[in-house]
Amino acid sequence: MKWDFLKIHMLPRPPPRARAVTIMAGVGILTGLISSLPSPLPDLRLDDPELLINAEGIPLHAGVAFGAGVAVMLWLWANRDPGKCLLAVALTIMGWLAAVNTANDVMQVVVSSHLFGTVEGAKANREIVGWVLAGVIGGAIGAGLTAFGAGIAAQAIRRPEAWGVIVGVGALYGLLLYPAASLDQIVLLVVPWQAAVAACIAYGLTRPRA
Question: I need a surface site. Which of 46, 49, 94, 200 has the fewest CB within 10 A?
Fold first, then answer.
C-alpha cells in the first residue's frame, strides 16, 4: 500500500476513490464526535439581526471542527494554498451558522402557521413537519456552503455532478434533525451528516471527468 499522497513534497492528489471516501468518512465521524461534545463557549445570540451564534444544543465548534477536518484533507489532496484552505474553513463555519439559523426560522414559521388547523394533535403534527423541513433545508444549505468552500481549493468540486451530490446528501441526512431533536442527542445528527458530506467531498475529488 502506497501513501505518497500524504507526503508534503508530493503534488497534492487524492488516493484511490474507495480509500479516499473511507478516509473522509472517518474524518467526518471524528469531527462529528468532537462536535457533539459540550460547547466550551458561552451562549451567544445577536439581536439585530437575530442570529444564533452558539448554544449548548447547537455549538459553534461543530462548524469549526468540521471545517478544519475538511480543510486539512483538501490541503493534503487538492491544494497546498493555505489561504484557500482557510477560506474552506470559514465557509464551512458560515454554512453551519446559516443551516442552524435557517432551520430555526423554518421551524418557527411552520409551528406558528395554521397547518392542520386546530384539530387535536395539530400542533404536534406541525412540529414534526417543522423539524423535517428544517432539517432538509438546513442540511442542504450547510452542505452547499461547505461544497462552495471546498470548491475554492479543489476545482473538481466545482462540477455540478460533484457539488450536487454533496448538497443532496446534506439535505437527505438533514432528516436526522428530527430524531436528534426529539431525543436531545445532537450526536445523532452531526456524526452521520458530517461523515456523509465528507465522504461525498472525497467522491467529488476522485470522480473522473466526463
Answer: 49
Q: How far apart are CA 155 and CA 145, in angstroms?
A: 15
| CA–CA distance, 65 with 28 (Å, rounded to integer) | 9
Say whether 2 sits in a helix, a strand or coil: coil
Helical segments of 154-186, H only: 160-173, 177-183
| Cβ–Cβ < 8 Å for 85, 153 | yes
For residue 144, give the nearest of 99, 110, 180 by alpha carbon.
Answer: 99
Cβ neighbours, 10 Å, residue 35: 27
What's the CA gap between 52 and 49, in Å, rounded? 10
Residue with cell 473522509: 24
- In tens, the pLDDT along 11-54 reads 578 889 999 999 999 999 999 999 998 877 776 666 555 666 66
Three cell numbers written together for 44: 451567544
Give every CB contact of residue 178 below 8 A, 6+ residues apart in sequence. 128, 131, 132, 135
Q: Give the pLDDT confidence score for residue 114 in this predicted structure.
A: 79
Domain ranges in the chain are 15-206
Within a 13 Å sphere around the CA of 61, how many CA atoms are in the beta-carbon half?
14
Residue with cell 433545508: 137
